[in-house]
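User: Hi! I'm working on a homework problem where we have to compare a predicted structure to a textbook description. Could you give me the structure for the chain below?
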Amino acid sequence: MAGVTAIFFSYVAGVRLGRQQCRADVAQQSGYVQSETIKIIGDVNAETFNRGVDDIRHVLHEKYTIAE
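Assistant: Happy to help. Predicted structure tokens:
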């Protein structure tokens, strides 16, 4: 009887440990995905800003000269 009880409690402890490890892995992966998303958004915003400024400069350069 003591052996069955020990096996049962070992099983329950293993299930709990497995769930905790799974939650930790999911939290770590979620943090990684979130940081990568923020990095991509920052890169896209920088590229958009740089292109927008370049386009404005190009249009103004075409429309106006130093003489005007």
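For your comparison, note the following. The radius of gyration is 29 Å. The mean pLDDT is 86. Good luck with the assignment!
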